[in-house]
Each structure stands twice: as C-alpha cells, then as structure tokens.
Amino acid sequence: MVCGRALHTAGFSGNGSEREQSELTRLAPDRRTIVVLGSLVFGMTVASSILLALEPGPSAPLPGVTLQQLERVASEDRLFDIPAPLDWRAIVIHDSRSQAGSADSINKIHHELGRGGLGYHFVINNGTEELDGLIEVGYRWQRQIVGDYLEGEGAEWFHKHAIGICIVGDGDQGGFTDDQIRELVWLVQELQSRFHIPKQAVFLQIGSDDPQATSHFPTVSFQSQLLGR
Length: 229
Prior knowledge:
This protein is α/β, with parallel strands linked by helices and 229 residues long. It has helices at 48-52, 75-79, 103-112, 139-142, 155-161, 178-195, 219-224, and strands at residues 7-12, 34-36, 55-56, 67-72, 90-95, 122-124, 135-137, 150-151, 162-167, 202-205.
C-alpha cells in the first residue's frame, strides 16, 4: 500500500547497469505515484466491436532494462508536462495477461518484437516487480507518439487516437490490487478530463475473449467511476 505518493522521473539506461536504489519521497495523500520512463530507441467513429476483434500484442514479462532516478516532481504536473498532445479520443485498457511484470519487462518484449520499445503509454504495477499501484509513464506519452499495443485490422486508428494503458495482472487467473484499481481510476479520470474523453470511449480488454472465463476485474465498479453520463 502506498502511503505517501511520489513521482520519479526515470530513464531506461542504455548500458544495462544495475538499478539505482532510492527511497520514495513521502508526499501528501492526494499525490499519485508515477514513474516516468525513457525509451531504448528513439470521434469515436470506430465501433467498439472493431476493438474486440483486435488482439493485444504479446506482453509476457522478460528481464527488463534498468531505471535511473533523475528527479522528483508533483505527479499532476509531470503527467501533462508533454509536447503538443496528439488527437486523443479514447482510452484502451489491457491486462498484461501475466501474474508479474512492469514497464521495463514489457518494454523488453515489445522491443524484441520490433515495436521500438514499450507499446503502451502507461503501465500500472501490482507489486511483483515494481511498487504496488505505481504508474509508469512510457516514452510514447512523454514524446506524444502513437501507441503500438494492438494487432489486426483497425489497430491503426486506436494507436493514433487511443491512449494505451496496461495494468499488470491476468484477468482470467487472479484479481488486481486495490492500489492498482485506485490509481487506474485516478489516471483515467485525469485523462478524460484533460482530453474530454467520454466514458463510452474508455474500452476495457481484460482477460481472454472466452465467454466462459471468469473476469477478476471490477468492471461495474470501475465504469461507475468514469467521468460523464
């Protein structure tokens, strides 16, 4: 459980050195813990049924590159300390379909798949590799670059117009932590508010497409907290 919340500005180290360790700065409870990551390399006219036909790209965790802390700032300021934003009209939320993971784990596999590194804009951790509830901000968000987290016809529209969020965990195999859900709600609300994204344009793809599978994501509770009618 994160008591005080801090924001770490960090970058992927190109030489693969060991992760530098540092204590989190304790801030007021209304802060959000966000780690900003660097890269290893440099409306709603689309129906939701198209999104359902697309497959999330593989994101199984692998040993990741290191993070190096540079500075700490208020999370709300850092979240929108970005270049001119792209034309964001929607939000897509995936689970990692793995019990463990983090942004650097997913970055590794996406890099090996030729995606130029982490395909998502944000990753929310479950405590297996990074602090529970920690929001990691990828280089695509920092630099306002389109995402790369879907495969199939229609993926291009979502990559250009939908902010990609990955929450670490497997919706078919187990639940998500309270910290993860709390931070996900906060992040989505902030993005909705800033870019005027309606709740109908927040898409969940959690777990498999098997109708017999039991989802461990609190869908009803989450959707009830989205902004808009």
